[in-house]
Amino acid sequence: MTDPIAEVVSLLKPRPSISKLVTGGGQWLVERTELGSPFYCAVVEGHCRMTITGREPMLLATGDFVLVPDIFSFTMSSLEPPPRGALAQRLETSPGVFRLGDSEAPAEIKAMVGHCAFGSDDKALLVSLLPEVIHVQGEERLMMLVAMINDETRADRTARE
User: Fold this and answer.
1) DSSP bridge partners of 30
2) Are 64 and 137 in contact (CB under 8 A)?
3) Rounded Cα gap, residues 153 and 161, in angstroms
4) CA 20 to 30 Å from 150, out of 56, 97, 109, 156?
């Protein structure tokens, strides 16, 4: 039996373009609008809330993977987000590693997030066949793959790209 979503994704020829390791503690909120590229998030440890404009908020927890294949505005936040309009606290602690919220608070989330590009000439048609959001929970093999991609992007090895 074939998996239609997997087949469409493979036809899209995805490749990572930006990859970050993010931790967060205390109250934090990140808002994204008009991304221009597909977004993914793999929760390595902890939990957070993701709200895509026009949809109910989703609680993301350890082992969850989310792919938003098209341009949508969304927020990611601590379970108790700061008030709207509060200044975002974001600190790059090393290349590609970011800390959100209170740097003194214990980390409540560790996630690999990023953007990818689709190499297919038919990406508009193929993306229209996918759900607006793909949310996979507890798939260990997927998390291992994302961890390997993260390791490869963080390492300063020859031919890593």
Assistant:
1) 76
2) yes
3) 7
4) 56
pTM to 2 decimal places? 0.79
The Cα–Cα gap between 133 and 115 comes to 14
In the chain the beta strands, taken as DSSP E runs, fall at 14-25, 29-32, 39-52, 58-61, 64-68, 74-77, 90-94, 97-101, 109-118, 134-137
3 state SS of 127:
helix
Decide if 132 contacts 54 (C-beta within 8 A): no
Contact predicate 19/153, CB 8 Å:
yes
Instruction: Name the residue among 126, 128, 105, 141 with its Cα closest to residue 26.
Output: 105
Q: Are 59 and 49 in contact (CB under 8 A)?
A: yes
Residue pair 42/65 in contact (Cβ under 8 Å)? The answer is: yes
What tens digit of pLDDT does each residue of 86-118 get?
666 777 787 778 899 988 889 999 998 887 777
Q: Which two tokens stand for residue 73?
A: 């505005």
Are the C-beta atoms of residues 135 and 51 closer than 8 Å to each other? no
Alpha carbon separation from 46 to 39, 78, 84, 120 (Å, rounded): 19, 10, 23, 34
